[in-house]
């Protein structure tokens, strides 16, 4: 009922018995299990007596089956869980957007045991150090996200995914991933966005360890097991020669999720985004620039990421042009409402409103 920050056909659907078996197996292998409850909104259903009771039953089940920790985005849930289910460790989700000392301290005062920091501040080293000095709870960073830096769609996207993943949602999981289509279009029409994204190279993990970051999240739970293992090995070994794009939480799976909800979409084009190559070895020392740069205020007068992109990013031009055309076409169908076949209804509604 709570949902999470992810949705779509690539996310496995679990039965209760299968989830319990999976958690038991994880424990037997020496792993801890974190359960995502990080939808950013419950549509106010947490205040309804019946659904509040359902909420408590769900949290009780998680506690009973041995879940070690839960990732949460709603402050009220943090307090509720810490008071009524104290055996569950609570991690504040990156969706909580902890991007300041003040916000980190507020969440720690609510009882969080760990904070996954807003990935937008991954290269703001002065701020990271100050947050580390201001709280005692564990701090983590997301290592391999290709989300746009300071993405204007981020809050809306998190909300659409949160509601789509909730069992009581009247659309039963259906949503249009307008945000991912725009994300892909922005990255392909401006290659510097691929560099501005706040991913962390495996080779640079030690910088974050030295400033006191406790744990590192590898995104990509919708990817294949083979992909997850490859990315995990890269970050565990602190090295990845070759194409950095291979281990970034790329747009491919997100676009497939978007495709599944687009009636009449050109599926072959959506399923095959252009091949992207980011030469990781050529990025040696790349991170040092950000140790002295304030990107939040200085991006308008800086060309660093564009220069790096011109040097290390390669995309097949023909594939890129065709894909950009498809993305623009799909977005056009959404913004014109033609995808909903609602033109006649829209015109009729306007006429009746004016009358």
Helices and strands, with pairings:
Layout: H1 16-28, E1 34-37, H2 49-64, E2 69-72, H3 75-84, E3 89-92, H4 101-110, E4 114-116, H5 125-134, E5 138-142, H6 154-164, H7 178-189, H8 192-196, H9 205-210, E6 215-217, H10 225-237, H11 251-260, H12 267-271, E7 276-278, H13 295-298, H14 304-312, E8 313-315, H15 317-335, H16 343-354
Parallel strand pairs: 1-2, 2-3, 3-4, 4-5, 5-6
Antiparallel strand pairs: 7-8
Task: Give an overview of the whole structure.
- By secondary structure, the protein is of the alpha/beta class.
- The protein has one domain.
- The chain contains 16 helices and 8 strands.
- α7 (178-189) crosses α11.
Radius of gyration: 21 Å
Question: In terms of per-residue confidence, which ranges show pLDDT below 50 for 5 or more consecutive residues?
Answer: 264-269, 345-355
String of helices and strands: HEHEHEHEHEHHHHEHHHEHHEHH
Largest sheet: 6 strands, parallel
Strand order of the largest sheet: 1-2-3-4-5-6
Mean pLDDT: 89
Strand content: 5-15%
Instruction: Tell me the helix content.
Output: 40-55%
Distance between the termini: 42 Å
What is the overall number of helices?
Answer: 16
Domain count, please report it: 1
What class would the helix/strand composition place it in? alpha/beta
Shape: globular
Tell me how many strands there are. Answer: 8
């Amino acid at each position: 009922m709570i949902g999470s920050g992810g949705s779509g056909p690539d996310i496995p659907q679990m039965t209760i018995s299968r989830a319990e078996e999976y958690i038991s197996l994880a424990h037997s292998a020496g792993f801890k299990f974190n359960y995502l409850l990080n939808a950013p909104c419950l549509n106010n259903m947490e205040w309804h007596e019946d659904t509040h009771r359902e909420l408590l039953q769900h949290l009780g089940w998680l506690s009973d089956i041995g879940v070690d920790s839960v990732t949460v985005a709603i402050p009220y849930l943090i307090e509720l869980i810490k008071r009524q289910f104290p055996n569950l460790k609570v991690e504040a989700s990156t969706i909580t957007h902890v991007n300041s000392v003040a916000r980190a301290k507020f969440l720690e005062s609510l009882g969080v045991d760990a904070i996954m920091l807003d990935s937008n501040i991954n290269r703001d080293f002065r701020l990271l150090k100050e947050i580390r000095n201001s709280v005692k709870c564990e701090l983590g960073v997301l290592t391999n996200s290709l989300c746009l830096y300071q993405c204007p769609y981020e809050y809306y996207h998190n909300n659409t995914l949160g509601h789509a993943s909730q069992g009581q949602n009247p659309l039963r999981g259906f949503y249009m991933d307008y945000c991912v289509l725009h994300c892909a279009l922005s990255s392909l029409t401006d290659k510097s966005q691929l560099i501005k994204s706040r991913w962390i190279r495996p080779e640079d993990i030690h910088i974050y360890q030295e400033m006191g970051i406790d744990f590192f999240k590898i995104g990509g739970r919708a990817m294949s097991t083979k992909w997850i293992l490859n990315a995990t090995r890269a970050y565990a070994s602190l090295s990845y020669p070759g194409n950095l794009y291979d281990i970034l939480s790329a747009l491919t799976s997100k676009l497939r999720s978007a495709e599944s909800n687009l009636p009449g979409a050109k599926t072959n084009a959506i399923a095959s985004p252009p091949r992207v190559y980011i030469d990781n070895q050529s990025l040696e020392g790349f991170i040092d620039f950000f140790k002295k740069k304030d990107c939040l205020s200085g991006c308008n007068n800086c060309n660093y990421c564009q220069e790096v992109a011109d040097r290390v990013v390669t995309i097949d031009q023909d594939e890129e042009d065709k894909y950009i055309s498809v993305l623009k076409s799909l977005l056009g169908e959404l913004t014109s409402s033609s995808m909903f076949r609602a033109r006649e209804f829209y015109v009729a509604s306007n006429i009746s409103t004016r009358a």
